[in-house]
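Repro case for the chain-ordering regression, as requested:
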Amino acid sequence: MDHRLKRWHSVAGALLLLTLLIVVVGSAQADPYPQSTLHPKGDFALMVDKLFRTTLFWATLVFVLVEGALVFVIIKFRGKPDDPEPKQVHGNTMVEVIWTAIPALVLAMIAVPTVRTIFRTYETPKGADVLQVEVVGHQWWWEFRYPQLGLTTANELHVPVGRTVALKMVTQDVLHSFWIPQLAAKRDVFPNRSTTLWFKAEEPGDYPGQCAEFCGLQHGRMAFQVIAQAPGDFDGYVGRMQATGGPAAAPATPPVDSAAAKPAAAANALNTATLAATVQAGADTVAGSQLFMMKGCVGCHSLNATKPMGIGPNLAGIGHRLYIAAGWLENTDANLAKWIQHPQTVKHGVLMPDLGITEAEAQSLVAYLRQH
Amino acid sequence: MDAHALHPATSTGIPNRKLAIWTFIGSECLFFASLISVYLVYKGKSLVGPYPSEIFEIPLVTVGTALLLFSSLFVVLALNGCEQGNRKKFLGWLAMTILCGLFFIGMQVYEFTHFFHEGLTMQKNLFGASFFTLTGFHGTHVTIGVIWLLSIFIEGVRGHVPPAKALNFEIAALYWHFVDVVWIVIFPVVYLMNS
Amino acid sequence: MATSVLDHAGAAGIHPEKTGLWAWITTVDHKKIGILYGASAFIFFLIGGLEALVIRLQLMKPDNNLVSPEFYNQLFTMHGTTMIFLAVMPLSAMFFNFFIPLLIGARDVAFPRLNAFSYWVFLFGGLFLNASFLFNAAPNGGWFGYANLSSKQFSPGLNMDFWAIGLQILGIASLAAGVNFFVTVLNMRAPGMKLIRMPMFVWMSFITQLLVLLSFPVITVALILLMFDRLFGTHFFVPLGGGDTMLWQHLFWVFGHPEVYILILPAFGIISEILPVFSRKPLFGYTAMVFSGCFIAFLGFGVWSHHMFSTGMGPIADSVFSLATMLIAIPTGVKIFNWLGTTWGGSIQMKTPMYFALGFIAMFIMGGLSGVMHSTAPADLQQTDTYFVVAHFHYVLFGGSIFSLTGGAYYWWPKMFGHMLDEGLGKLHFWLMLIGFNLTFFPMHIVGLEGMPRRVYTYPAGLGFESLNRIETYGALILGFSFLVFIFNVIKSTRSKVHAPADPWNGATLEWSIPSPPQEFNFPSIPTVHGRDAFWEEKRAHGGKLPEPARVSGAGIHLPNPSYWPFLAALGVLLLFIALMNHASKLGPVYIFAAVSVLFFSIFNWVFEPAEG
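-- result from build under test --
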């Protein structure tokens, strides 16, 4: 009786565990995962995903068989203390050879596609059509440069759908790792040696990514967005960014300019409040422009995408970015004002100091930046 | 402690302490292999001088190397004397070994001082950093070896190292051989291979 | 107190059981040192566990600010460092110390005083590392301390000095213990205990020592170079001076991967002792188990770069390290199949240690398979540095090592302390631990694949990480609670004083032939061994059962004298490193000179002190 009761306890424990794990998997299905590796939308990520699914298949098969054998053993060979001693077996050469050989065969099934895929990951995309992008990691933000287009931007990388993007990456300070799960995978970024990664976005969308190598205090807040756009939209984006370098651009860009064709993907996130602010700008933006100079913002930040200057992120196009403070804080007027006023509270440890900017000044700066 | 206590029966027949020193030497090989690898990885990677070819004094180091090599022979003779109970042979060759070791240390002190004057420091460039680290750790090993041998010499003079206790000396001698062998690797890798 | 130890030394040969602080400080008895290792490591394990709970509470909801990013980075660095160097390694060392001599039929280890020295250096190293919290400067660069974040420029505080120096101190302890146990296993075996008759735990521990001896020198060099960079301004890992950050990664992982096997092989050994006893059947495929252990250790030195796939080493290197890593699955598979083969056809006795052993197999399969999944380099480009990897190594190190070590604790507790742990509480502990463990770490697979990187102090809402992280935190709380059950079990059992028989489980190995707990001299007379499973053989030869062994007088048995020099030498090591850390202060050279003096003085007195009475 006691024996049976104990066995019942074990069954109950095992069932409870199983139920909980099913709950876990179930709740996992419920959430949307924009940063997932499991829903690839780029050729590189698709290639990796295919290999992952091959491995997952074999791993699951082995898992089920071996765990099944374990459960079988526990149920089948359960003994009582006074049972006679079981047959004393020390081994069986044939069986041992078989279970050495079978895993070797399974591994061969994984090994062949693995090596093939490894070589593909290192193929350097060539040709005039390839969009070259230079990535520079900073503590704790990302700088993107388009050498073919003469543009520099930060934390939001716009790419055209259907065109291969070749990334060449270095860091200004410590090691980082550039990870864009849905489009490619990750590649570490080093101070005195450049690394590469490539991808081709298959469909338009906003793809979040983030630094994956621990890089100090704000490693957790070093994200970015890749915005894949239809080729026409991308050209519009490039045109507007190049215009920030035009004679009329700095320091006060005509409001019309920023109201021009926006990236389709980013459009939905660009709230109407922003547009309203741009229209009624007037005096506020003039004050903002002066503050931008006086408060020293200009010492670190450029509003000109064609001139990479200053140690801070290039702010050309800041008004239209989805997020601020390196890809995680939603780009609302309130957040932007708070970020300008209290950077050390919002993201402690960043290079941007608290400059003692008042609420009103911050509003003016926001209004001004919204034009860019 | 009697002879029995020094040589208890072991499963392998090798005394514990002798096996231990061999084990330790095996581990130390990885230590020096890592230091030598670091030296080789950074070879030619220094951003500023002084560079090795400008600064090495091969003849002096060759003499030091030769003496260290000879000391390995001397320590064998000394151990032989110790095991035979030949006090004169034991202490005489041991003294020679220690002198060779001391000369080597002296050579290294001179070399380091000279390099400092030439502007080579650990902070100056990668060559300085990896060179001083590698040879410095070797020199520390030599110094510990000299202290160890010296303490055996003093014990020997006091008559505390009879043939039955030759193992006390033997493990020190094994260590000394190891230190010499490491230098046999360092010398060509660092001094000769830098055309 | 000082005179009492002299009295003991003078009254050598009688050896009454000694108690009191001084007896523990001067002990050279491998069993007492084992208990010291176990107690210290368990306390460090609880500290590391508390750090983990704070981490889990911080990640329980998005954009949480329970702890600051500064403190969070210290927490996860110290959690990893503590669990690896201050919990799992010394918990294994507890079993090495207490049981290797008993399992091979020896009275002590080869070098009892060196053994004490190892323990004290370990303890001081652990205290040194944790003392950093008092200065609000706990290490914060991750347990693998990647260059160049660890450089003075990017980590200006004392944090990484504590780390680089603390790990060097701990390395000395591990190396001294490595030499000691390597020699002990080779040289101290009882007559007839051939290598190929040794219990599997001894075999796996022996291989572990070999790994320690060959891998710790490499990390020692890496840490020395880092220390030189930080303290003396060299540029080994400083890019501005030409230093190469990849060199750190190579040096670290040449150590780091064998270290993984240093953490798991003793666990394999413990499982290989528990399964036969509770299946009442000898270990299946003994020889294959020995060779697969050797093969794992050998391959362990050739796969380090699989930690570095994302650095872009090139297709050839990636392929070689991918394939070499996959190869490890073969000997590991052999082990798992042989364990199943051991239980197959057995008469399984479901006692608490067996629960943990079977739980170990179930969880370790999981960890092994996720390991194969990141051996495919391209897939690893997605998985590395995410929570998928965190899940993987917790299935290996918690589901593997900790399950096994806990099982070992239940199995050997009666032998170590002379009383039984409660079976009911033991099983409750098991189920809570199994459920808590899986709730904590299984969702990490998913959340990692869904894009959550590791080592982030928080995550924004909207990436879908919320619900899984909440479940993980609940799981962690259950997991933490399960160890309270264990502590309660220990207290209850200690109080109840139910005396354990010498052989409560019908054990197969020599430790069960002597009273529980063993007397100071272990074996009244050194046993002679006639085959594997020596004690089973002996019981069979005597018709299946032996009378309860009596406690006897140890008169005439020579045992090593207690000594305080190992303690002082260990203190000298600690002082030397503290002095190095403060070398730049005004009195720096004085500190260093003083520390070296203490060290040399202790070592000389140790050398010239008679070892045996």
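Ordering looks correct now. The radius of gyration of chain A is 28 Å.
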